[in-house]
Design a protein that fits this description.
5-stranded parallel sheet; 367 residues; globular; 10 strands
Length: 367
């Protein structure tokens, strides 16, 4: 996708525009394709089970009149009630609700979207992945954010048997589409190894960023920022680790939503736009130690790089050679790592490396 097209196509992007990181890549794909003369339609499915797709409308909180969409609303409501705070429900019931939602979304979208009117369909999120197998004359690219069955399993939302079943289903979808990509290239190799997919249809489109002209500047002592989700149900974020790091180093500021439990002892600063990164000297990544996250990727990593911030990354995350400007740490080495970044010369070296990496990963380069 690197050159202007002499043969414009009609492209349908099916995605969830949540206003956060999950919605960033489809927006960039749309911009990229339009800039090259293609006709693009975006189907935002985030409110598929609601009476209105407008976020500021009261109807976006209410169920729709359509029977299938009303059923989707009930499935999503049941997920909220039975799998978020109830440990047994989270582990044993999530599978059935996930499967029900996948089927309903496929049925609703297949009947409401004119799939055959497009030359290509791009699917962006696992919730809509079963639509990728619907019969159509269009070519299909499933841009899978993450190996979903494994993510749900490591988030303690599946039993061992349920994990095997959902992994088989996901592998079938990944192997059946004409093209498959992932949020980051290490997820592709992970899925080939752990899912046993063929990889014959891989067309990798890495996550990208927009390098910012207003780069971060050196200051002492280095101020560290965590900018991202603070959801207690997203266990891969590893909020306990973030809490322990905050006790080790007092100059860590935390931004995001929802507001964290005060018991974590975080220096929580609320919400801020990405421009706040200019005020800091390092960005912080936290994650769990499961196999998926060891081979994984965080969207905020590239957001930090875009401002020339050295990125503090858990030492157990692999393939950091793909993201220059990364500085591995663990709880025993955090203070010595930050001490090294207290040197203007060393900080500038790593900052320049980070910004150069961001330029290599600009969206127009990765798409």
């Amino acid at each position: 996708m690197s050159q202007a097209s002499k043969d414009p196509k009609r492209v349908l992007i099916v995605c969830e525009l949540d206003g956060y990181a999950n919605g960033q890549k489809p927006v960039e794909i749309e911009r990229f394709l339009r800039s090259r003369g293609h006709e693009v339609r975006v189907a935002n499915t985030i409110y598929l089970g609601r009476a209105s797709a407008k976020a500021d409308s009261l109807l976006s909180k209410l169920p729709p009149p359509s029977p299938r969409r009303f059923a989707l609303y009930l499935v999503q409501l049941a997920s909220r009630l039975f799998t978020r705070g109830w440990k047994f429900g989270r582990r044993h019931l999530s599978y059935y609700l996930v499967r029900a939602e996948l089927r309903l979304r496929r049925s609703i979208l297949r009947s409401s979207l004119p799939l055959d009117e497009f030359d290509m369909i791009v699917g962006e999120h696992p919730n809509d992945s079963e639509l990728m197998t619907a019969p159509t004359s269009a070519r299909v690219l499933y841009d899978c954010m993450t190996p979903w069955a494994d993510e749900l399993y490591y988030e303690e939302r599946l039993t061992d048997k349920q994990h095997e079943k959902l992994r088989r289903l996901e592998a079938e979808i990944l192997d059946s589409v004409e093209y498959v990509s992932f949020g980051w290239e290490t997820y592709a190799s992970y899925t080939v190894t752990h899912y046993g997919i063929s990889g014959r249809n891989l067309l990798q489109l890495n996550w990208g960023c927009t390098p910012e002209p207003g780069r971060a500047k050196f200051s002492r002592p280095p101020r560290v920022i965590y900018l991202g989700s603070l959801s207690p149900t997203a266990r891969f974020i590893n909020l306990p680790l973030l809490s322990r790091l905050a006790r080790l180093y007092p100059h860590i500021d935390v931004y995001g939503a929802p507001a964290p439990d005060p018991g974590l002892g975080l220096n929580y600063r609320g919400y801020a736009p990405p421009t706040v990164l200019q005020q800091y000297q390092a960005g912080l990544i936290t994650c769990t130690k499961d196999e998926l996250r060891r081979d994984g990727f965080s969207a905020k990593h590239l957001q930090y790089l875009a401002y020339g911030l050295p990125v503090l990354v858990p030492a157990w995350r692999r393939h950091l050679e793909l993201l220059r400007g990364s500085v591995p740490y663990d709880e025993d080495t955090l203070l010595s790592v930050i001490a090294a970044l207290s040197s203007r010369r060393e900080w500038q070296r790593v900052s320049d490396e980070a910004y150069a990496q961001a330029r290599r990963l600009a969206w127009d380069e990765t798409l």
